[in-house]
Amino acid sequence: MTYAESEVYDMKRIGMLTSGGDCQALNATMRGVVKGLYSCFKEVEIYGFLEGYKGLMYGNYKKLSADDFSGILTKGGTILGSSRQPFKMMGVPTEDGLDKVKAMKDTYKKLKLDCLVVLGGNGSQKTANLLSEEGLNVVGLPKTIDNDIWGTDMTFGFQSAVDIATNAIDCIHTTACSHNRVFIVEIMGHKVGWITLHAGIASGADIILIPEIPYDIKKVCQALDKRTKQGKGFSILAVAEGAISKEVAELPKKERKAAIAAAAEKYPSVAYEIADKIKDYCGMDIRVTVPGHTQRGGSPVPYDRVISSRFGAKAAELIKNEDFGKLVVMKDNDVTAIPLSESAGKLKYVSPDDSIVKNAKMLGISFGD
Ligand code: F6P
Fold first, then answer.
1. CA–CA gap between residue 274 and residue 154 (Å, rounded)
2. How many domains would you assign to the chain?
3. DSSP code of 68?
4. How far apart are CA 121 and CA 142, in angstroms?
5. Most CB atoms closer than 10 Å: which of 25, 51, 177, 346?
6. 289: Cβ–Cβ under 8 A, 6 or more apart, which residues?
7. Which of 24, 145, 269 to mutate to test the pocket of ligand 1 (most atoms within 8 A of CB)?
8. Residue 315 falls within a domain, yes or no?
9. Which residue range is the domain that position 208 belongs to?
10. Tell me: the pLDDT tens digits for 103-138?
């Protein structure tokens, strides 16, 4: 049954919020939800909570109409604003003594909401699951440039970030080639390396270093040396923010944390640390480029516009069917939904055994392992 053919139901009151680090296609997703809702229900009241869960805690919202979601398909950022409200702090009262979970439930009840739609990453979906377990009707939508939400093949924002990171490496490629230089481009992803892996392959990087595959600096230098011997005057390393050496990865947790903290004191970020190590080990002079938050900015690429619109429509369908406590996901090219509880608390890591890693190695890309 298409939405156009679908039955039109009565009035619904829907709360919506965007939580955590922003990304492209947040607005496109909200537009999709709202368009879907208007196909399903005769009347819809939308309550947009400002700055994520903070707005829900403090009852800080805007009442929005269909017009507010018009013309935002291509607009970056989020019209609702966002903030990070770590899940592990949900049991700790706010500075002004507010019980966070109770306050969120009170706002939901006061506004007589029929459902809360949460656009968020891992931590935000954990909170969404908590609110669902507390009895609220919740639907989650998988947002993050990192593509690390467990249970979905794709998150919205990821392809747009890959596009920007790829462009950044492409630009470095031409100048590296002109000057016969070695460059490190540091790509976002503290815990997972999906963006680095995809952007690295897409841009023809020679070495890709990601958190899931700890590197050995000797192997990195060997890969650089091999290129020099092949007569290649330049090399490109795509390095994730959370790239980690074998020695540090093998340390017990406490020592590992201390080693990472010590490096953070010494270097602006991991790319500079690796540049220094390469210089020490094989005497090469390395340039570093960090595209940083540009990777979360600007318009979503067409792929993200399509999946976010589909995700939004699916969320409306779940609400119509009163199928709550679900996270909308992409599985085997189909948009479907899984219980929030199934995904909450798990990260989707790159596995060294993933075929994409094996393919990259076949292409001659070194992971420094
Ligand atoms: O979770 C998305 C993300 O962009 C990560 O890739 C990055 O490590 C982090 O957020 C940056 O966070 P912040 O915007 O708080 O600096």
1. 30
2. 2
3. G
4. 6
5. 25
6. 168, 172, 183, 184, 185, 186
7. 145
8. yes
9. 160-296
10. 999 999 999 999 999 999 999 999 999 999 999 999
Q: Is the predicted pLDDT of residue 285 greater than 90, yes or no?
A: no
**Please, which residues have CB within 8 angstroms of residue 66's CB and are 6 or more apart in sequence?**
34, 35, 38, 44
Q: Which two tokens stand for residue 186?
A: 């540091």
Strand order in 115-120's β-sheet?
A: 61-64, 44-49, 12-18, 115-120, 138-142, 326-331, 334-339
The catalytic residues are 146
How high is the pLDDT of residue 3? 45
Question: Sign of dihedral through CA atoms 210, 214, 216, 222?
Answer: negative
pLDDT in tens, 195-253: 999 999 999 999 999 999 999 999 999 999 999 999 999 999 999 999 999 999 999 99
Query: Does the global pTM surpass 0.90?
Result: yes
**Predicted local confidence at residue 8, as pLDDT:** 55
Categorize the per-residue pLDDT at 7 as very low, low, confident or very high, splitting at 50, 70 and 90. Answer: low
Residue 361 falls within a domain, yes or no? no
Residue 366 lies inside a defined structural domain of this protein: no
Residue nearest to atom 12 of ligand 1 (CA): 21
Q: Indicate whether 44 and 115 sit together in one domain.
A: yes
Question: On the CB side of 112, how many CA atoms lie within 13 Å of its CA?
Answer: 4
CB 44 within 8 A of CB 78: no
Pocket of ligand 1 (CB under 6 A): 21, 121, 144-146, 188-190, 241, 296
Of 188, 192, 195, 269, the residue with max ligand 1 atoms within 8 A of its CB, to mutate for a pocket test, comes to 188
Neighbour count for residue 118 (Cβ, 10 Å): 29
Reported residue count of the chain is 369
Q: Do 305 and 210 belong together in one domain?
A: no
- Cβ partners under 8 Å of residue 128, min gap 6: 116, 118, 120, 138, 140, 327, 340, 344
